Amino acid sequence: MTKALIAKLSQFARLSSEDRDAIVGLETVHCKTARAHTPLISEGDKPIHVRLVLSGWACRHKDLANGRRQIVAFFLPGDFCDLNVYLLRSMDHTISAVTDVKYLQLSAGMLGKLTEERPRVAQALMWSELVSASIQREWLVSLGQRTAMERVGHLIVELYTRLKSVGLAADCRMAFPVTQSELAEVTGVTPVHLNRTLQELRRQKLIELESRQLTILDLDRLRDLAMFELGYLHLDREGRHLDAND
């Protein structure tokens, strides 16, 4: 169940067999589930546990009093929904399931034990958190500077790259369970504008989207359109100096 997490952390450091076994040991925690479109934890709740997504997609969002919301992050398999969230007195955002989600709910003590006993895992987790912050900065740039076409294209390439890096996408194809309303809530455009944007991406033969499966027809052109630069995902083992010896 923790295969995606091991693949993700291996992007930042080469883990030893003992490191990988320690991560697999997290599976002793009872697996929890959340149905699509239900919260894993809501704004105002006291965060006691750290959540690790095993399967399905989840999102972080902020809700306004008038019912509108902004999705500010997607959590894919292998992602923690904030490593240190248990330090807060209360949640300042909501984490909800986009699809049916399976996840582990880890105590601070269990995670602390892992990071104390396996320093390379701890360092890789720190790299992962830095990448999460980098992704947030890139999303902010998209909202402030990219057009609707560029925003949607950039998000598609990012999600494909993240899924591919943990073995969940290949050959420019990926599961894409996000609704048009949710895409609008990510990219900051109206649902009508979002629909037109998707139609234009199809018209330009950049993507195909059918039955919650997305195919990127011309990855290079889509990257160019979105001004996508891979560097912000830091997938080239910048933590290689932390590599295990075995």
From TrEMBL:
The cross-references to PROSITE patterns, in alphabetical order and at most eight, read:
HTH_CRP_2 (PS51063)
Question: What SMART domains does the record point to?
Answer: HTH_CRP
The UniProt keywords, alphabetically, are:
DNA-binding, Transcription, Transcription regulation
Keyword S-adenosyl-L-methionine: yes or no? no
| Entries under InterPro entries matching the protein | cNMP-bd_dom, cNMP-bd_dom_sf, HTH_CRP, RmlC-like_jellyroll, WH-like_DNA-bd_sf, WH_DNA-bd_sf
User: CDD domains recorded for this chain?
Assistant: CAP_ED
Q: Which residues form the HTH crp-type domain?
A: 146-220
Record protein name field: Crp/Fnr family transcriptional regulator
Q: What is the native source organism of this protein?
A: Qipengyuania spongiae
